[in-house]
Structure formats: C-alpha cells, structure tokens
Design goal:
Chain lengths: 110, 114
Amino acid sequence: RKEVEQDPGPFNVPEGATVAFNCTYSNSASQSFFWYRQDCRKEPKLLMSVYSSGNEDGRFTAQLNRASQYISLLIRDSKLSDSATYLCVVTLYNFNKFYFGSGTKLNVKP
Amino acid sequence: NAGVTQTPKFQVLKTGQSMTLQCAQDMNHEYMSWYRQDPGMGLRLIHYSVGAGITDQGEVPNGYNVSRSTTEDFPLRLLSAAPSQTSVYFCASKGRGSSGNTIYFGEGSWLTVV
C-alpha cells in the first residue's frame, strides 16, 4: 500500500473556479504535512505546510484531518498560472523520510 | 544563489554501464537525499544522509550507492545500469529537524538506459 495516495486528475477548470484536491496517508504516525507544486519538467517546490488547525496563504487553503488521515488543498479564483501538478507530502517525526504522493494535475483554462 | 546543483541534466547509458550523478548544495544543509520520479509513482526516496559520513537507505535503494564525504556533496552511483533505472532523478537537501522542513530540490537529471 502506498504511503500517500492522490487522485491523479487531471482537473480541468476554467479561470476563476474553485478547485479542491484531497490526499490520504496510511501511517497514523505521520507528523508533518505539506503541499508541493511541480511544473512540467521542473523540480518540486514547497507551496505550503499544512497545520492541524488549517491554514491559508492567499488563494490557497490547506486542511488536515488526522482522524480520517487526509489532507486537502483548496484553490480559489484559479489562475492560468496555477496549472501544475500538486504533490501531497508527509513525513514522520524525525523528518528524515518524506513520502510523496504521485501528484494531482491541474489545468486551468481561459 | 546556487542552492542545489546536480549534473548531468541528461544522460543516456547502455545497460551494464556505471555512472555517477553529482549533487552539491551551498546552504550548509546537513540532510541530503536522492529521489527518483517515475510516471504514476511519485517521488521515491533512494538514499539519504543526515550528515557527512552518514548514509541510509530509502524505499528503493537497490542498484544505487551513495557516499557523503563532505557536507556539500552527495553523489549517487549507478553500479550497473538497467533499463528499469530509466527515470528522472532529483537531489534534495534541507536544514535540521522540524525547523528545516522545506526540501530544496535540484533541477533534475533525466537518465535513459538502453
């Protein structure tokens, strides 16, 4: 069983739409959670960390549900520049092993 | 402003050949790691190091060796290349503990084994 599972998509949405991705993780001992963004043929880059109380960064909102072992990412008012693959990442307490989901592809259309 | 630098960017190998992917970081990070990324599989950890002289295996270590003689460098060696090792390889580094939870990736190395 994969440590982290994501819907691969693609999610095709018009500009201005709101879109949400979910990600589930299998290890209940997972301590920290992140969303990374990866553009085509580029390296992944940190989008945001995910905190237990939920957190927001501009148009992006991340939520964590420890009981159900999933995290979510909500993007409001989608821009063309949001088109990318979004990777869900979890790590255990020692931060030595990061487990990546296979990514959810988002296409924002004009 | 180099960050994590990995070379080469593209390489074609014949089955059975060996090669080394180079990785260097200039952020004085203790933690460095190598991932491979395959379609539908996400990034999988090959090996990692928490400091000079210390290395450990990740999820998919077979067929790869690493060493960490300095804080800056973390080369990945393919001992005898196989077509199954065709992939994109990313080197990454981060600072220490929970305060260093951001992973910085190199730009990737595209490896094809024929």
